[in-house]
């Protein structure tokens, strides 16, 4: 593992962008996203987007692992500036890009819409909110991986009827130390989604 990654995450924790726990289990949790992808796809994604990247998890870990093109999306300027700072360090991977925007808006930008093989989300929001905000970034056939709480029933969190409105199909829960939900974009997403900023949270689809 690149020493850059550990230094970047330690700095992120020191600035309050990550929780106070040890860096190693936080890296292990981020690596679970990679293991979910690698269980179903033989090669790393060419383009992935980390939704609500915040302090850099899992985005920085995946960028360091795969060295493909990554977009780290966050709505807060302070956290985005931190990510730009660590990506400018001399030994950082060269293919990281930081975008400061609300997901509902950025998903409709021509340069981001339908571009990504993979979208990841850690602590972004409820299943309905995360799915709606993420789906338009994905290519048809693209993968959405979301970290999950350990104890809640999957059938109560991931409603097939609501996901179907977005063109997503849940593949079920995977466990690599912690839990992750894997979804595939199997159908086109109606132009109505995502709805305007704030609406997915105020009026969730499921």
Q: Please tell me the CATH architecture by its name.
A: 3-Layer(aba) Sandwich
The number of distinct structural domains comes to 1
Unreliable spans? none
CATH superfamily: Vaccinia Virus protein VP39
CATH topology: Rossmann fold
Helicity, in percent? 25-40%
Strand order of the largest sheet: 3-2-1-4-5-7-6
Helix-strand pattern: HHEHEHEHEHEHHEEH
CATH class: Alpha Beta
Global morphology = globular
Structural class: alpha/beta
If you had to describe this structure to a student in words, what would you say it looks like?
The structure is a single chain. The protein is built from 9 helices and 7 strands, in the order H-H-E-H-E-H-E-H-E-H-E-H-H-E-E-H. The protein is an alpha/beta fold and about 210 residues long. It has a single domain (about 5-200), classed as Vaccinia Virus protein VP39 (Rossmann fold). Strand 1, helix 3 and strand 2 form a beta-alpha-beta unit. Helix 2 packs across helix 3 (about 60-65). The longest helix is centred in the N-terminal third of the chain and has 18 residues, at about 25-40.
Features:
about 210 residues; alpha/beta; Rossmann fold; 7-stranded mixed sheet; 9 helices; about 35% helix
What is this structure's SSE topology?
Layout: H1 3-14, H2 23-40, E1 47-51, H3 59-66, E2 69-74, H4 77-87, E3 96-100, H5 103-106, E4 116-121, H6 127-135, E5 138-148, H7 154-157, H8 160-166, E6 168-176, E7 178-185, H9 199-202
Parallel strand pairs: 1-2, 1-4, 2-3, 4-5
Antiparallel strand pairs: 5-7, 6-7
Helix pairs in contact: 2-3
